[in-house]
Specification:
With 289 residues, the protein is α/β, with parallel strands linked by helices. It contains nine helices and seven strands; from the N terminus they run βαβαβαβαβαβαααβα. Keywords: Oxidoreductase.
Length: 289
């Protein structure tokens, strides 16, 4: 058993993959407020950089460090460059092995159907591979490198953002759904392999949240309206709800919690999120007989 920590603050560094908006942005701010320095990896163009700057400023206002990298997190060479820089920064500060939290919150994939009247409108192998690589498989490669470099050691926490979409269907959502299901499987395997090292791994299943990623899904308005209607807590999940939970889950006392898909949704999933099957198929109503 471990004794309850007397300090309310978290320590060390958090590595946030997808740090510039949505869950990653909120988690960066909340973990900094709780005491952590932040390495943020994001991919933004000029139009969205003001929001990145807002997050970096918010982190620094807590008195914590904010070191952000505007690169493709699924690119192996860019991953090595980020970790080379992080390793040097930590060594120069006399803080090796101080990455305590990793959050995988990458939301970039194709929203094409598997089948379409015209072949050019259907998903390609390259698009499927890209979606799963970014939204699922990249988690493994980041964790491998962090552990092999001993940037993350005993007491570390690995989190990956998933959703109920991993077990449900929606028009054009097939590749992303497959990525979410794969991500949950990766978390289970990582939990087993990281356990002897004293590192935990859990997936966070957020309820329907109005984020830039959700807004890209065809029919997102119906998803939002349905979630607002059926959630027993009376509202959508927010990125701040998820961030607050991550702060609590990152405390030392959660050392025995690993390999789970943790629902943070105000009760949305237990009441059975369900939409019209026609809407799920991208139809306005039943097809002609």
């Amino acid at each position: 058993m471990t004794r309850l920590s007397q300090s309310p603050e978290l320590q060390g560094w958090a590595l946030i993959l997808g740090a510039s908006s949505g869950f990653g942005g909120a988690a960066s701010l909340a973990l900094a407020e709780a005491g952590m320095h932040i390495f943020g990896v994001h991919l933004d163009r000029k139009a969205t950089m003001p929001n990145v700057e807002r997050i970096v400023t918010g982190i620094k206002q807590t008195g914590r460090e904010a070191i952000f990298f505007n690169v493709n997190a699924s690119d192996p060479e860019k991953r090595r460059e980020v970790l080379d820089q992080a390793e040097k920064i930590l060594a120069d500060r006399g803080e090796p092995s101080s990455v305590k939290v990793v959050l995988h919150s990458l939301a970039f994939g194709t929203l094409k159907p598997f089948l379409a009247p015209s072949p050019k409108d259907a998903i390609t192998q390259a698009q499927m591979d890209m979606t799963l690589d970014v939204m699922a498989h990249s988690l493994i490669y980041w964790v491998q490198d962090l552990v092999m470099r001993q940037l993350m050691v005993r007491g570390g926490r690995v989190y990956a953002m998933t959703s109920s979409g991993g077990t449900r269907v929606w028009s054009g959502y097939g590749a992303v759904s497959a990525a979410k299901a794969s991500l949950e499987s990766h978390i289970r395997q990582l939990a087993m392999e990281l356990a002897p090292l004293g590192i935990t791994a859990n997936a966070i299943r957020a309820g329907v949240t109005d984020t830039p990623a959700l807004r890209k899904i065809p029919g997102n308005h119906e998803i939002i309206q349905t979630a607002q209607k059926i959630n027993p807590s009376g509202r959508l999940t927010t990125p701040e709800d998820i961030a607050a939970a991550l702060v609590v889950l990152s405390r030392p006392e959660t050392y025995w919690m690993t390999g789970n898909v943790i629902g943070i949704d105000g009760g949305e999933d237990v009441v059975g999120f369900c939409i019209s099957p026609f809407a799920a198929a991208g139809l306005e109503g039943p097809p002609p007989a």
